[in-house]
């Protein structure tokens, strides 16, 4: 494992733990050169899963895209990065449980919206406005009505 601080390849594992969800291995490491410590995560990687975009194109599933999109929806909102990571983990597990080789971005968006609604309505509204491609105030008014219910 390459040290993120000095780039040396001489690192050693100090401690390994399974995370709460049981799907990830957390390793605490130390660089043999600069002696700085850092954490790595090992995750099970299943078969390649493709996401079918709105335009019909296909891209490999990327959990980090979920994280980036959700973080944008929480801009200037009181939320922890751990909660965002947990949401992304939940969505990824749900997607992989379906045991399909392709899934639509629309389906993934619905999974995210379902979770966001229970966490923060403002973030839900922001994410939904992009997801539903709202172009005018009427669309926002309908979403606000939905959020109020």
TrEMBL record:
GO MF annotation list: ATP binding; DNA binding; zinc ion binding
Manner of cofactor binding, per the entry note: Binds 1 zinc ion.
Q: Which cofactor does it need?
A: Zn(2+)
Name of a matching Pfam family: Zn_ribbon_NrdR
Zn-finger (unnamed) residues: 3-34
Gene Ontology BP terms: negative regulation of DNA-templated transcription
Keyword Cell membrane tagged: no
Q: Which residues form the ATP-cone domain?
A: 49-139
**What keyword terms does UniProt attach to this protein?**
ATP-binding, DNA-binding, Metal-binding, Nucleotide-binding, Repressor, Transcription, Transcription regulation, Zinc, Zinc-finger
Its annotated function is as follows: Negatively regulates transcription of bacterial ribonucleotide reductase nrd genes and operons by binding to NrdR-boxes.
Family as reported in the entry's similarity comment: Belongs to the NrdR family.
Name of the protein in its database record = Transcriptional repressor NrdR
Organism encoding this protein: Candidatus Amesbacteria bacterium GW2011_GWC1_47_15
């Amino acid at each position: 494992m390459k040290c993120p601080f000095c780039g040396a390849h001489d690192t050693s594992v100090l401690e390994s733990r399974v995370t709460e969800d049981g799907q990830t291995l957390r390793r605490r490491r130390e660089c043999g050169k600069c002696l700085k410590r850092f954490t790595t995560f090992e995750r099970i990687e299943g078969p390649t899963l493709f996401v079918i975009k709105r335009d019909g194109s296909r891209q490999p599933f990327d959990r980090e895209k979920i994280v980036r999109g959700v973080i944008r929806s929480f801009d200037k909102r009181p939320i922890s990065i751990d909660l965002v990571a947990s949401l992304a983990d939940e969505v990824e597990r749900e997607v992989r449980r379906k045991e399909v080789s392709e899934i639509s971005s629309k389906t993934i968006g619905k999974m995210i919206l379902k979770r966001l609604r229970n966490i923060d309505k403002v973030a839900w509204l922001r994410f939904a406005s992009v997801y539903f491609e709202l172009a005018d105030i009427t669309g926002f008014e309908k979403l606000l009505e939905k959020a109020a219910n």
